[in-house]
Amino acid sequence: MKKIILLMLVLGLVGCMVSGCGKKDDKTITVGASVTPHAEILEVAKELLEEQGYTLEITEFNDYVLPNTSVEDGELDANYFQHRKYLADFNEENGTHLVEVAAVHYEPFGLYAGKTATIDDLTDGASIAVPNDGTNEARALMLLEEQGLIKLSEDAGFTATKLDIVENPKNLDIQELDAAQLVRALEDVDMAVINGNYAIQGGLNAAKDALAVEDKNSEAVQTYANVLVVKEGHEEDEAVQALVNALQSEEVKKFIEENYDGAVIAMF
């Protein structure tokens, strides 16, 4: 009897190895996302996917590394939290194989008042905080350049840091801070250039509260479009394409327009 039971257990284990016991079914899609606005937008897509028989499981992250490594390792099917430039840099620096499958939205960078109320009121030596991560610092500095506050070297491009500032007529003190801390830092600096998602989390709206916002026709908007990302080789998976269609639906576009008042703008 014991031999029969043992044989059944062995056969069951072999069956699991062949068929993939415990493996997620094809109708479940796991996605990592930043809390705002990405996870909120995914909640709208979730309802649309349910009508097609899919279950969307959303895992929220507060960092910019784990969502990518989780997709690379196969723990998640996709993520939606990053822009194109960050994705390209992450792949290059980490040897990952992550690819964009859809552009969904962009979040305009804004320059917000801290201790100084207007750009004209900035005095010599005034402090302006910017994100300290490579891709977003360049974007912030470009916005300051658009306002005539600084001038960057011609070859700086999207890798610019404050070391690439060649003209600074007001001797502005550019302070590089963690992007998540910029809203909190407003009380300590004259102004800050803040990422769209962190501005929203901090109760700020680029369209209403910012002193200056990126030009919607700028190269930065295309470069920093927020994208849905999967591991290379899964771009055409049926479930992935279903998620793409849901995220680029009229329902999602309407949600974005009605809920973010210009702080988030659909790319489709």
Architecture overview:
The chain is α/β, with parallel strands linked by helices and 268 residues long. The protein has two domains: 27-107 and 223-266, D-Maltodextrin-Binding Protein, domain 2, CATH 3.40.190; 110-215, Periplasmic binding protein-like II (D-Maltodextrin-Binding Protein, domain 2, 3-Layer(aba) Sandwich). It is 39% helix and 23% strand. It is built from eleven helices and 13 strands. The protein has helices at 2-19, 35-50, 66-72, 84-94, 134-146, 182-185, 196-201, 206-209, 219-223, 238-247, 250-260; strands spanning 28-34, 55-61, 78-83, 98-106, 110-113, 127-131, 151-152, 165-167, 173-177, 191-194, 212-213, 226-231, 265-266. The strands form three sheets. Strands 2-1-3-12-4-13 form a six-stranded mixed beta sheet, with helices on both faces. Helix 2 (35-50) links the parallel strand 1 (28-34) and strand 2. Helix 2 packs across helix 10. It is elongated, with a radius of gyration of 22 Å. Residues 1-23 have low confidence and may be disordered.
